[in-house]
Amino acid sequence: MNILDKIVIDKRQEVDLRKHLIPVSQLEQSVLFERETVSLANRLRTSKSGIIAEHKRRSPSKSIINNGLNVQDVAEGYESAGVCGMSVLTDGKYFGGSLDDLLLARASCNLPLLRKEFIIDQYQILEAKAFGADVILLIAAILTREEIKQFSEFSKSLNLEVLLEVHNEEELHKSIMPSLDMLGVNNRNLKTFEVSLETSKSLSNIIPDDFVKVSESGISSVNAIKELQPYGYKGFLIGENFMKTDNPGAGATKFIKELEA
User: Fold this and answer.
1) 240 is catalytic
2) Residue 78: what are its φ and ψ, rounded to 5°?
3) Residue 182, H or E segment
4) 38 neighbors 111 (Cβ within 8 angstroms)
5) Pairwise CA distance, residues 20 & 15, whole Å
6) What is the spatial distance between Cα 234 and Cα 220, in angstroms, rounded to a whole number?
7) Is 227 a residue of the active site?
8) Which helix (H) or strand (E) holds 164?
């Protein structure tokens, strides 16, 4: 059993509990439920840098990254740095995040926000909307084609964009459908945790041009982005690189200046 399998087992229990605690009707009454969402895909298409900066306290592969920062400061710093969007980890057990982090980020900036979560139930998509997200993440490795279709179409009905994440060609082929906005290639092998940009390069020519291409994991240098841009990538998800510093916003500012120089 790999880490993703363990996370999904725990996530099913967690979601069942949350459903009992907070009914759907309560989520739909959230002030943020009627909010007009901001398009991350459009921002990435027109951006020179394409940075999606992440708020992440820890991860299964790296343990603690940074527990000492507050979300407001990170969100404000990212926005002033000129990133295209912000990814907020909301998984508690493995990543130290929460839906409150999403809420605080929403209150602190006008960036498109991605709820970074292991979505296995439609209920979590309603949560994303109620807590201020603009985009949800779907992970092909943990979903069937039918679930990807159901969840992505449901997201569109709520005006949420969908970033679908794949790790290999097989996942990509099962996932391509019109209800997606962005296709993300995760460069991390979930079995070994090894990271290689070759994953993004090799899958780039199979991703149809209708989707915004996003590369995730292992992007820690300006050179990595310059290496991937000729392959059609418009988005680059960067978490650890900024979060391991005392001031992620300043790190993002410096990074983007170098990239656009």
Assistant:
1) no
2) -65, -40
3) strand 182-186
4) yes
5) 9
6) 16
7) no
8) strand 161-166
Tokens of 19: 């459903």
pLDDT in tens, 79-123: 999 999 999 999 999 999 999 999 999 999 999 999 999 999 999
Given the DSSP bridges, would you call strands 63-64 and 233-238 parallel, antiparallel or unpaired?
Answer: unpaired
Q: Is 54 a catalytic residue?
A: yes
What one-character DSSP code corresponds to residue 161? E
Looking up tokens 């994440």, which residue turns up? 165
- Report yes or no: 243 and 67 within 8 Å, Cβ to Cβ: no
Output the DSSP codes for 37-99.
Answer: P--HHHHHHH-SS-EEEEE-SEETTTEES-SS--HHHHHHHHHHHT-SEEEEE--STTT---H
Beta bridge partners of residue 135, listed in sequence order = 114, 161
Establish whether 161 is a catalytic residue: no
Please tell me what DSSP assigns to residue 170.
H
pTM here?
Answer: 0.96
Q: Please identify which of the residues 66, 108, 175, 186 carries the catalytic annotation.
A: 186
* β-sheet bridge partners, residue 182: 163, 212
Per DSSP, the three-state class of 185 is strand
In the prediction, which pLDDT does 191 show? 73
Q: Kindly report, residue by residue over 206-241, the tens digit of the pLDDT.
A: 999 999 999 999 999 999 999 999 999 999 999 889
pLDDT in tens, 138-195: 999 999 999 999 999 999 999 999 999 999 999 999 999 999 999 999 999 877 778 9
Model pLDDT, residue 118: 98
**Catalytic: 247?**
no
Is 36 catalytic? The answer is no
Percent of the chain with pLDDT over 90: 90
Coarse DSSP helix, strand, coil percentages of the chain, rounded to the nearest 5 percent: 45, 20, 35
